[in-house]
Amino acid sequence: MKGYTGENIRNVALIGHGGSGKTTFLEAALLATGVISRLGKVEDGNTVSDWDKMEIEKGYSISAAMVPVEYNKVKINFVDTPGFFDFVGEMNSALRAVEAAVIVVDASAGIEVGTEKAWAACKHFGVPKFILVNKIEKENVDLDELIGQLKDKFGPSVVTMDDKDALNEAVAETDEALLDKFFGGEEFTEKEFNTGLSKGIASGDIVPVLKCSALKGENIKETLQSLIDLVPKAADHEPYPATTLTGEETEVKPDPAGSPVVFIFKTLADPVLGKISYGKVISGNVKSGQELYNSNAEKAEKMGTIFFMRGKNREDTNEVAMGDIVAIAKLSNTKTGDTLCEKAKAVKLPPIEFPKPTLYIAVEPKSKGDEEKVGTGLHRLMEEDPSFVLERNNETRQTLLGGQGEQQLNIITSKLKDKFGADVEKVPQKIAYRETIKGTSDVQGKHKKQTGGAGQYGDVHIKFAPSQEEFEFTESLFGGSIPKNYVPAVEKGLRECMEKGPLAGCKVVGIKADLYDGSYHDVDSNEMAFKTAASIAFKKGIVEANPCLLEPIMKVEITVPDDYMGDIMGDMNKRRGKILGSEPLVGGGQKIFAEAPQSELFDYAVTMRSMTQARGSFTMEFERYEPVPGHLADKIIAEHKAEEEEK
Questions:
Q1: What pLDDT score was predicted for residue 510?
Q2: Phi and psi torsions of 146, nearest 5°
Q3: What is the pLDDT of residues 26-38, one digit of tens each?
Q4: Nearest partner of 387 among 408, 370, 366, 372, judged by Cα
Q5: Which residue, among 323, 296, 408, has the nearest Cα to 358 in the 3D structure?
Q6: Which uninterrupted H or E stretch holds 532?
Q7: Span between the terminal Cα atoms of the chain, in Å
Q8: What is the DSSP string of 597-637?
Q9: Pairing of strands 100-106, 9-15
């Protein structure tokens, strides 16, 4: 795999619906080029790209894998990506390292949700695309009908390589001079045709359809040759947008003789080998032993062992050319999305775009004392998969894992146990409720303690009322009823009580407290006594001022095809939600704006995926707090009291 220059390297992501045959296609390509002697099968756990223990156990891809295929003196760096939607972060990472993507379609299943999502991702990231129709050997496959469906769904850019009329028309559309020639009935020269075809593919205006049977080994070499001929070369890539360390916009040209720039698009957290970083060499070349500067971490990194990966197999090298993809061992300060370059010419490429988590679960260690082991393991796994997040909710004191769905979060907790020996269990997620008051009260808080020697004495009269601010403290004392030096202790006592309300032990908000009277003792009064008196007044005053529970209300934006509008709206109403409006989207579908209590949305990602066959998506963020309906508030308060009694 050594010795290739940018001219003879093609970088291609394999994307598409789960089960469309991406991994099997790579097996067929390796078999056809003599790397392996028999076709591995996903179900047998013996494929080159699904080498991880968990992938073998589960029978599907979890992580993007590098599988270079060498054919006709050209190396095609395939990045095989998972087809399941929970692992969309892997696809997003892969699309940052390639010049084109091949969307694999199962000929017998036709256009699936994963096909649509893969197309949308290529469009979003501006990556040239091909469609590879696989499994053409299956019974009842009507290729002409499928090609028609692809054209109907994705438009006239979709063309088969054997449809000369459609290809000529697509090529003509890339250039005005060619369009004139086409309408004039003149034939293109071979150079004009090839230039127009390359230009059309690079811009996304032409999407060639290729066909194969990976299982039977049909059309595999022809597919590889088409990719060699048609995938844009790394050297032909448009300059990459970047910024300098001071934030000024610049660009990086893919120049073989330029200053070295490497973009890290994936990290592997291996308990044995340590951290492995996958990098795309954007410019210049990279040598073993060379020192580069991480412009994100602002620290130097030594390129120790550098190698090429094919599945789990590695081949050490001393030098990697512009356009190639390399694995680098043990970069201590580097993570996914970082840029390595020369310090004197430091640049940063844009970070990888990961979707926000849509599903959160609360976890805690199964064994006491494992907190540190769990934390360390999760942080290592976040290096490997930055699309999941780890959050600590200080109010509920829960550790939350956030990701794209149940599958991803289950894999993370399984890897945590398998790789780092840290076992966690899922626990019910708690809500950070709030407490406030709707009425007013006027109370006395008196603390008097005499136990021989100096006693304690503090006496306060406080009026409580609702406030627009989180906490408002005033004092309207008169006649020296309490010395001014004790007033800060009263405020401090009240502020501390705000952390735990009398109803359900939740944080208290929206309170105004006015200290207007009290009394003191020359000998026995002190700051602690007045702090305690304030605490007594708070507990009485809140209970007497018509307290109520508040719950977090979330703003939800839901994107769905028109067909699912009714189901989504009906489901949102069942969740005590409100539909605020909707707007049609360009290209079809609707964006629905809604609000709903957080407690009703814990499982929304799972339900919505099921309701829309994974065609819907949503984002959610905190909007405000609102009173909890009475019957639900009673239940929450009763549960809290039962917990307190248990303690």
A1: 96
A2: -65, -45
A3: 999 999 999 988 8
A4: 408
A5: 408
A6: helix 527-544
A7: 64
A8: EGGG-TTHHHHHHHHTTT--EEEEEEEEEEEPPHHHHHHHH
A9: parallel
What is the layout of strands, in order, in the sheet containing 359-365?
A: 389-393, 398-403, 359-365, 424-427
Name the strand (E) or helix (H) holding 383. helix 371-384
pLDDT, tens digit, 9 for 90 and up, residues 316-330 = 999 999 999 999 998
> Per the structure block, which two tokens stand in for 90?
């892997």
What distance in Å separates the CA atoms of residue 407 and residue 400, rounded to the nearest whole number?
A: 16
Residue 502, token pair as written in the block = 């009398």
**105 CB-near residues (< 8 Å, 6+ apart):** 16, 17, 20, 111, 112, 115, 131, 132, 133, 134, 146, 150
- Give me Rg for the CA atoms of the chain: 32
Element (H, E) at 541: helix 527-544
- Give the chain's length: 647
Residue matched to tokens 């256009």: 111
C-alpha 411/C-alpha 409 separation (Å) is 5
> What 3-state DSSP class applies to 327?
strand
**Tokens encoding 359:** 């599903």
**Alpha-carbon gap, residue 432 to 426, rounded angstroms:** 18
CA-CA distances (angstroms) from residue 390 to 91, 149, 376, 394, 552?
21, 42, 11, 13, 20
Output the six-digit token pair for 64. Answer: 């993007």
User: Cβ(433)–Cβ(632) under 8 Å?
Assistant: no
The torsion angles phi and psi of 228, rounded to 5 degrees, stand at: -60, -45
422 in Cβ contact with 416 (< 8 Å) = yes
Token pair in block for residue 42: 């996903």
Contact by Cβ (8 Å): 616, 559? yes
Tokens describing residue 609 = 């995926």
In tens, the pLDDT along 526-536 reads 999 999 999 99
Tokens 């430091």 — which residue?
346
Structure tokens belonging to residue 322: 């512009």
Going across the sheet that includes 511-519, the strands are 441-449, 456-466, 511-519, 471-475
Nearest to 463 by CA among 529, 512, 520, 518: 512
Provide the CA 74 distance to its chain's centre, in angstroms.
34
Beta strands 129-134 and 100-106 are parallel
Tokens of 570: 């009906």
3-class secondary-structure state, position 32: helix
The residues, any chain, with a CB within 8 Å of residue 62's CB and separated by 6 or more, are 52, 54, 55, 82, 87, 411
Residues of the chain below pLDDT 70: 50-52, 55, 271-272, 452-453
Q: Which amino acid, residue 541?
A: G
Please tell me the predicted confidence (pLDDT) of residue 12.
97
**Exposure on the CB side of residue 304, measured as CA atoms within 13 A:** 9
Residue (of 29, 81, 76, 33) closest to 55 by Cα position? 81
How many helices (H) does the chain have, and how many strands (E)? 16, 34
Q: Report pTM.
A: 0.87
pLDDT of residue 271: 66
Q: Give the position of tokens 């009398």.
A: 502
